[in-house]
């Protein structure tokens, strides 16, 4: 009976382990699906997000070893959410603000929660990056399709027709407008640069370099002046501070794009030579937004209520029937809608993510060589044998590796280091773009930002865990346990004390008189002494020995 119960318990444990493996795989796939669909089908990304969160909660319930973990920036994230919710009481339309709040902030926090809890292994980071990269390639290809086959954006109010009469095409691909697409492409170019720095092989450099060039070309045909300048500043700044080759490549690509497209050249030069309606509108919006902040400094005007309150602070358009939904400045917009404390909480989270990304530095793992009697050393015969072995291995035919394998089989420390650098640069691009636009007003863009923030936090925790393991290994190898140290010191002190006592007894003890030997013993001693002395050789014996040799 006991054996039957034991077998049933083992079967239940096996079934529980099998279901846990299924749940883990489904949860990860839901996160990958969200990352892939964010730029292509936002509704599908939201469905994948909700499914992933539901599966994650089931995992917390069923798996004993899978526990909730705190991310480094949980406090500012929750504080931002609370202050944003509190701002609803200041909104002219509290029902709309509440609806807008729980829909937007809900998906932001759920994305951060899902990614932050799932991403615990380099393998998961690898698959997530693959999903993001494939999605970005599709976005770029569709942008080229729009540019080649034509799309008239004159009626979409994205271009000042009087200032730029020749500009008829501004691609936006799967995003809502060219500026949002340009901000997304800035992020992808920065992620590509991070991996380009740490890729390690020629094949990977060519592939990642081609990806960055395609992203830059698609960015150029958006004709988004601010995003183009931001990417140029980020890449040139990295080139000046870390690698001059990046600076040269940036200058070369920018010069080629400006020479090939006169309209792009005119757009970029206009930033420094003239002011168009777009620039005037931004300056007027900033002036109105500052007035809103002065009147509502603590809780703001209400989450998502900018378009409702703006007509009261309209100093520029004077009642024109144009809907202004945000301030075209990320920092001013948050300060106006949720107050200065809410904006500071967001900045804490935002700048903290930049810090975590740059602090997550991974290095090549050290080789742990076990010293055995067969270990070859760098001296004598061992060195010659090692050289012979290396020569034989080099002359043997190596198995053919396909180009695809070279791209995929990248070491974990290279992958994570490249992602950390790319995330840091991507956050800087978002910060610079926020000076002239509010890219996070777009729901998929904000979800993507919170996904990147969760990736930065996960990388930081992975690095902390690796550092703790290295410290433990170093401590075990160098520092003995306290109990063993005390035992060793006690044993050593006793041995030294005993040796000291023996020496003292040997000095103080009188010399013993020599005992007289018996006749038989004297005869044996004499025979022993005789055997120790070599016998003289007879004549001719030496020659015989030499002959034998």
Radius of gyration: 37 Å
What is the string of SSEs from the N terminus onward?
Answer: HHHHHHHHHHHHHHHHHHHH
Note the gap between the termini.
84 Å
Q: State the helix count.
A: 20
Computed structural class: mainly alpha
Residue runs with pLDDT of under 50 for 5 or more positions: 477-489, 506-515, 538-549
Largest sheet: none
Shape: globular
State the share of residues found in helices, binned by percent: over 70%
Strand content: under 5%
Give the integer mean of the pLDDT values: 82
What is the strand tally? Answer: 0
Give a quick summary of the entry.
The chain has 20 helices and no strands.
Can you tell me about this structure?
The chain is an all-alpha fold. Helix content is 71%, strand content 0%. The chain has 20 helices and no strands. It starts with a helix and ends with a helix.
